[in-house]
């Protein structure tokens, strides 16, 4: 007999495939995916709480509580610091060669993510995340894209090869835990 959590795990795998097969600029795949489940979810939630307390950005704490209630989470990141060769200037440099020479500060130092990033790679990440959440929604699994979980991933050095990471927690329940406000009596 298959359980609801088994089905959520299957959908998470399908989301990874959706991210992988999403269109990419110049057909260069720089997307990285990972499933986080079980006790590992709590380490992410604790890191999100810590960031919220340190920065005063309480949405980190709210999202940490949502993550604790999730069945599992899909991480999707991009290796955005790799030049693509288009020389478009979207990164702020005249050429991809100049962009490639840029010295990037570690995400853990000050900023959440190292930069600059290739604009095409960032676009690829957005398309991959959109494809993944569409897949989850098509299978009626509640989800929410969380920048906060991606920041926690970077601080925990999970998917460290990526310059930008987003987390997408998943839940199968009678009420969407990510958007539905609690009933006030």
UniProtKB/TrEMBL annotation:
Record keywords, A-Z: 4Fe-4S, Iron, Iron-sulfur, Metal-binding
One protein family per Pfam: DUF2148
Domain 4Fe-4S: start-end pairs: 69-135
Recorded superkingdom: Archaea
GO molecular function: 4 iron, 4 sulfur cluster binding; metal ion binding
Protein name per UniProt: 4Fe-4S domain-containing protein
């Amino acid at each position: 007999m298959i359980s609801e959590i088994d089905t959520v795990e299957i959908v998470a795998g399908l989301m990874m495939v959706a991210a992988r097969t999403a269109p990419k600029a110049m057909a260069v795949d720089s997307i990285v995916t990972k499933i986080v489940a079980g006790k590992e979810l709590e380490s992410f939630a604790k890191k999100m709480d810590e960031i919220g307390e340190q920065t005063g950005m309480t949405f980190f704490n709210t999202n940490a509580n949502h993550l604790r209630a999730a069945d599992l989470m899909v991480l999707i990141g991009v290796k955005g610091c790799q030049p693509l060769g288009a020389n478009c200037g979207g990164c702020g440099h005249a050429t991809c060669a100049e962009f490639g020479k840029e010295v990037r500060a570690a995400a853990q130092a000050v900023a959440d993510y190292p930069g600059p990033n290739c604009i095409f790679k960032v676009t690829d990440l957005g398309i991959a995340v959109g494809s993944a959440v569409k897949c989850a929604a098509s299978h009626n699994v509640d989800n929410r894209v969380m920048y906060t979980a991606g920041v926690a991933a970077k601080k925990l050095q999970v998917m460290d090869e990526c310059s930008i990471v987003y987390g997408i927690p998943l839940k199968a329940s009678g009420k969407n835990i990510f958007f539905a406000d609690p009933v006030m009596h």
